[in-house]
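Why run this: before we spend reagent on co-expression, it is cheaper to look at a predicted model of the complex and decide which construct boundaries make sense. The entries below are exactly what would go into the expression plan.
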Amino acid sequence: MKPMVIAIDGPAASGKGTLARRLAVAFNLPYLDTGLLYRAVARRVLDHCADPTDAGAATEEARSLTRIDLDRADLRTSEVDRAASIVASLAPVRAALLDFQRGFAGTKGAVLDGRDIGTIVFPNADVKLFLTASVQERARRRYAERLAQGSQTTLEAVQADLEARDEADRTRNAAPMHPALDAHVLDTSTIDADHAFAAAAAIVNAAKKSLIR
Ligand code: CDP
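The model came back. Tokens follow.
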């Protein structure tokens, strides 16, 4: 059977990562968090005191990215959130990261999460999911994560950052975030991670059956 590609897109803190990891384990597929690529580019730009809006500098960093950059512990700060969204709006940066994402699925298939997986990176993915949740619920989840990291922030600041980043990700010219026409939209505002997984796994199992037929 042809290996499966599962694309999971959606706004910040919608539960993509948790769901993607669980699906990867359940269906025995490699997992790639593509947001980490943009975060790592942003981290390198900031480390080199460059301006994230500088397309030349950011593209150079995207081309120089290594696996080690993806393992850094300082990719999930609010400073990196903002810079990642800026570098992600630059078409040459996105182009520099495309081959790696497509190659990742290789011969084994993959679960990938991000903003443009079902629309640009894998428009022919076997399963496309678009996760949403109310901004209040997403802010609550991200605030809890930030507190657990020891960060000093407020729920209001986290929500304002999420809203600004969602708006930028939705309205940019390069690969704007939106559900693919054939994506299954899952609203996780009132369901927990177990229910989201059960709903998604049912969709993947149905797609598997139609691949076998
Ligand atoms: O974890 P969270 O949902 O907050 O963000 P992320 O998935 O780590 O992505 C960080 C930023 O990278 C997003 O705000 C997007 O601007 C960008 N991104 C993107 O443009 N395309 C992707 N496929 C993944 C992330």
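Residues 12-13, 34-35, 38-39, 84-85, 88, 114-117, 165, 169 surround cytidine-5'-diphosphate (CB under 6 Å). The first helix runs from residue 16 to 26. Bring this page to Monday's planning discussion.
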